Amino acid sequence: VDQFKTWYKDIISDVKAKGANIILLTPPPANSSVSNGKFCAPTSLARTALLELATEANVDVIDITQAYAVAINEYAKANNLSTSDLQVKYENNAIVASGRIFVDSVHFTAVGAELLAKTVAEQIALIDTGLENYIRIK
């Protein structure tokens, strides 16, 4: 975690030196991020480090881990799907079918990728960066 934060501090320093805006994004939840039948925002070392680093470096951060978990659950509800419909199906530790959102433990289907992109765009639009004027969400 310390090395991870050091790398990000170097990147932030370089980007700030160029006068650009910085928005850190926490990682989206994985296929296994389910609790009580809903996707959740697990606390991971990367998520925690990025949230801490944003405060330390005084830069914006979007908690995509949380926002995307909410978006997946809303998608499931709107489409009358269960959590298991969204997840990869395994038998004997082998993938036998992709879910509606995930193709494996961390990668997304086209539907999952579009939902993630929409979630990121919606979250960026909430931050006063000037980018919100260029975001068009379908």
Helix proportion of residues, in percent?
Answer: 40-55%
Q: State the end-to-end distance.
A: 37 Å
* Mean pLDDT figure: 92
> How would you sum up the major sheet?
2 strands, parallel
The beta-strand count equals 6
Q: What strand order characterises the main sheet?
A: 1-4
Low-pLDDT residue intervals, each spanning 5 or more residues: none
Helices and strands, in order, run as HEEEHEHHEEH
Strand content: 5-15%
Number of helices: 5
Describe this structure in words.
Strands 1-4 form a two-stranded parallel sheet. A hairpin with a 2-residue loop joins strand 5 (89-91) and strand 6 (94-97). The model has no long low-confidence stretch (mean pLDDT 92). With 138 residues, the protein is α+β, with helices and mostly antiparallel strands. Helix 1 runs parallel beside helix 2 (45-57) and helix 3 crosses helix 5 (110-125). It is built from five helices and six strands.
What labels would you give this structure?
138 residues, alpha+beta, two-stranded parallel sheet, two-stranded antiparallel ribbon, 6 strands, globular
Task: Briefly characterize the structure.
With 138 residues, the protein is α+β, with helices and mostly antiparallel strands. The protein is built from five helices and six strands, in the order αβββαβααββα.
Task: Give the arrangement of secondary structure elements.
Blueprint: H1 2-17, E1 23-25, E2 34-35, E3 38-39, H2 45-57, E4 60-62, H3 64-78, H4 83-86, E5 89-91, E6 94-97, H5 110-125
Parallel strand pairs: 1-4
Antiparallel strand pairs: 2-3, 5-6
Helix pairs in contact: 1-2, 3-5
